[in-house]
Every structure is written in structure tokens, then in C-alpha cells.
Design brief:
alpha+beta, Glutamine Phosphoribosylpyrophosphate, subunit 1, domain 1
Length: 156
């Protein structure tokens, strides 16, 4: 049985001992645009390459909008790298974490610490890696933020 015959299941190992869906997700990350983060003593800078998905796409068109840098709250933002620009699971992750940040602020009357937000992001991504019926995120995130510990930069 070849690798492609058992790739339908997330938690089934192939004959070569690999989880094929995880391999596909890692390939998607490796094929994505370049993103980088630089942490300095007084802040963090994140950047990414803006690459058109096709030479047939008109960049000046109002319907075309590529935004790979997202703001979760005024103190935390991230850039994601994946094979596709409009990756639906990334938007699920963004919405989930914006909701978490709002709930934390409403409950504790202060912004969520960067490390705690990164743990939430990592937990959701890990859940999608281990659960049946969903596929793993084919994306890597650089999370930048500022809290009482100063500027911070994480890769998820």
C-alpha cells in the first residue's frame, strides 16, 4: 500500500512511518512566501513577501486583497506563511484568537499577555493536528507582541 492510499486519515501512519497529512502541511509551509521577524530591545518588526498568486491577477483590482499580517489586539500581531493566501483555516484561527483576546480583556480588564496568546494559538493548531475530521494547519506563524515583559517574538 503506497503513501497516497492511506493519506485520507490524519492519524494513520503510512508504510514509511510518516503521517502523510502532516507531511502535506509541512510542505505547504515550506512552499509559502518568506516571512521574518526581528526582535529589538524596544520593539518587534514582522514582514512578509507580497506575492501575487498568479500573473493573471490584477493587483490594482479592488477585489484583490492580500493581508498576511494580522492584528489580534493593539499589543499582539502575527504574520502567517502558507501555500495559499486565503487559507480558510487561518481565518478560523484568527477569529478564535481575537475572541480569546476580547474575553481575556473583558474578564481581567487588561490585555492578554503575549505568552498566553501564543499558548492558545498553539493549542488550537495542535488540536487540528491530532483530531479526526479536520486537517492540520498548513501554516507557520510569527507572533509579535509587547507586554509587561517587553517585546516578544514567537514562532508557532
Amino acid at each position: 500500500m503506497g503513501d497516497s492510499q492511506c493519506s485520507f486519515s490524519l492519524i494513520t501512519f503510512s508504510t514509511s512511518g510518516k503521517l502523510v497529512q502532516i507531511e502535506h502541511a509541512l510542505t505547504a509551509v515550506g512552499s509559502g512566501q518568506t516571512s521574518l521577524g526581528i526582535k529589538a530591545a524596544n520593539g518587534v518588526v514582522i514582514a512578509t513577501e507580497k506575492k501575487l498568486p498568479s500573473m493573471l491577477v490584477d493587483e490594482a483590482s479592488e477585489s484583490f486583497h492580500v493581508q498576511k499580517i494580522q492584528i489580534l489586539n493593539p499589543d499582539i500581531g502575527f504574520v502567517f506563511t502558507s501555500l495559499t493566501v486565503l487559507h480558510s483555516t487561518i481565518w478560523h484561527l484568527i477569529d478564535c484568537n481575537k475572541k480569546t483576546a476580547r474575553q481575556f480583556k473583558a474578564l481581567f480588564k487588561e490585555p492578554i499577555p503575549v505568552t498566553q496568546e501564543v499558548r492558545v494559538i498553539a493549542a488550537v493548531m495542535q488540536e487540528f493536528t491530532q483530531s479526526g475530521g479536520v486537517r492540520p494547519f498548513g501554516a507557520s506563524l510569527l507572533v509579535a507582541g509587547f507586554d509587561d515583559k517587553g517585546p516578544q517574538l514567537f514562532q508557532v
